[in-house]
Amino acid sequence: MARAIVIGTGAGGLAATIGLAQQGHEVVALEAAKQLGGFLNPFARRHYHFDPGVHYMGQLGAGETTAIALERLGLDADALFCPMDADGFDVLRFPDLEVRIPRGLENYHQRLLDLFPEDRRDLDRFFGLLRRFARIADTVSQRPMRPLRWRDLLALTGLPDAMRWMERTFGELLTRYFRNPRLRVVLAGQGGDYGLAPSRTPAFLGLGVLLHYAEGAYFPRAGSGAFRDALVERGRALGATYRRRAPVTEIHLDGQRVTGVTLESGERIEADIVVSAIDPTLTFGRLLPRGVLSERLQAKVDATQPSLGSLCVFLGVERDLRAHGLGAFNVWDYPHWDLEAMYAEVARGEMPTDWFFFLSPNSLKDAAGTMAPAGCSTLEVVTLVPHQPFESWDGLQAFKRGPDYESFKQRSADGLLAAVEQRWPGLVGDVVVRDVATPVTNGFYAGAVKGGAYGPAAIPEQYGKNAWRTRTPVEGLYLAGSGVMGGGVAPCLFSGLAAAGAVRKAGVPARVPTVANPAPEGSRLAT
Predict the structure, then answer these.
(1) CA contacts within 13 A on the Cβ side of 32
(2) Contact 524, 47 (CB under 8 A)
(3) For 348-427, where are the E strands, in sequence order?
């Protein structure tokens, strides 16, 4: 009998698998799809390799939070990731302004002062706030993973600000700090990382993304598949096993205690611990027997809103895109300055009429040079779209959705690429590979509810104290994944560690001796 089962093998599930195996539990990780990894799973077309869900990560420098999390998992961030352009890992592009976001909070502060010298006072106040938030954010996120340090007491200086903005939006915060509306838009320009307008973004989330990349951005060496494989191999080295094409249809209970799961095939696997790293609405709404949930929890399941979907065009081109203005950086390209209007259109269920898009030349970020043939490049063009126009094809298998779907998908992609051509003339050319993913693609390959690219929407009603918790009312059942700490690879990794930590605190004994967690040779932990 398996001691612990992990449902879903995205970043949260893979981290939970390692964390449980490190404690000595016998772990079986179950994946419904044919490949492990969720949004970490890459795909290839004619020697071009694409990453649907990973475009960059932050806080991977020495002593930073994501690096510490990987070290806790027994992995070396230096070996797995390469830094992106230090002078501008994200480029914000508006009709009459381009802003390159550099590595280092002080550098970004100075760059904005150079661009907006008349707003010095407002910028100084805002970056002062960011520094105070940085201290408290580092302490809160790192404390479970390291010993207490005397400088953690400095975080107390950020508590008044934290309390003031805990239940307010990023839009309100930016309006409070800036008179210049353009500066508000610039500082919300990375909002595609969570897919919300400033007026619907929790203040902590907007500040958190700025701080996550404050010391630069990184890309997985050789792409997301290499990172996925490192997580899987680490789990295997600790004794965990992984099963693909193993969708779970039911979590079994004895009263209010987990006893195991049943797979779609009819196979039953007994367990004392289940970590569900899929969408919480699926865990509570489909996998548990009816009547188990309280009225309050059932109402929360019914009210949960998914995040926006995405439309992504994957291009393999026989040209070096560095000769066309791109490099080891992302581009957020906006057709005008009204972010609220852009998001409102999609939130109403309408396809964009004036496309905003994200350019991600992943092959140029990969220092290993493995993602495209020599002299060639990959380019991923992404925008946010609603699920509604695609919902009639939801649940159908890939490549079997019929000509109407294919026609609509390609027309949508053509519209997006037309916007790229208008604002980046001549960028796209010599195309040898073109593939298109929609919200139903997200649902089919990654189990995304209504194609949501970030799990449950991180709106104020579903964020922070209103988010799903790691622990559940069911004994032995824990949650991980984007529904717990938010969308993105790093929050999902943290959620997996939190789930394993909650199991340890609950005192569930392991059935096999605890496996040591040696640091990889040459890592910072080994020094």
Answers:
(1) 21
(2) no
(3) 357-360, 377-385
CA dist 326 and 334 (Å) reads: 17
Helical spans, DSSP H, in 73-116 = 77-80, 105-115
pLDDT at 133 (0 to 100): 87
Query: Long-range contacts made by residues 137-140, C-beta under 8 angstroms, separation at least 24?
Result: 137/207, 137/208, 137/211, 138/65
The helix (H) or strand (E) run that includes residue 414 is: helix 402-423
Distance CA 32, CA 401 (A): 20
pLDDT tens-digit profile of 374-410?
999 999 999 999 999 999 999 888 889 999 999 999 9
Question: Which bin fits 461, alpha (ψ -120 to 50), beta or left (φ > 0)?
Answer: alpha
Q: At 16, list the tokens.
A: 């939970």
Residues 5-22 as b or e (16 or more Cβ within 10 Å = b): bbbbbbbbbbbbbbbbbb
Give the chain's domains with CATH numbers: 4-43+225-304+456-522 (3.50.50.60), 105-213 (no CATH), 308-451 (3.90.660)
Cα distance from N-terminal residue to C-terminal residue, the chain: 39
The alpha carbon of residue 262 and the mean position of all alpha carbons in its chain are separated, in whole angstroms, by: 29
Supply 366's token pair. 């990969």
β-partners of residue 202 are: 169
Among the residues of 143-223, which ranges form H helices? 159-165, 170-177, 181-187, 203-212
Residue 336: pLDDT over 90 = yes
DSSP state for residue 125 in the 8-state scheme: H
Helix (H, G, I), strand (E, B) or coil at 504: helix
Give the C-alpha separation, 57 to 43, whole Å: 20
pLDDT at residue 74 in the model? 97
CA–CA gap between residue 45 and residue 50 (Å, rounded): 8
CB count within 10 Å of CB 196 equals 29
Q: Give the Cα separation of 80 and 142 in Å (integer).
A: 20
Nearest to 221 by CA among 367, 372, 11, 71: 367
Query: Inter-axis angle of helices 489-506 and 65-72, to 10 degrees?
Result: 50
Average pLDDT, stretch 225-254?
97
CB 269, CB 499: distance < 8 Å: no
Closest CA to 205 of 497, 493, 491: 491
Closest CA to 383 of 421, 342, 423: 342
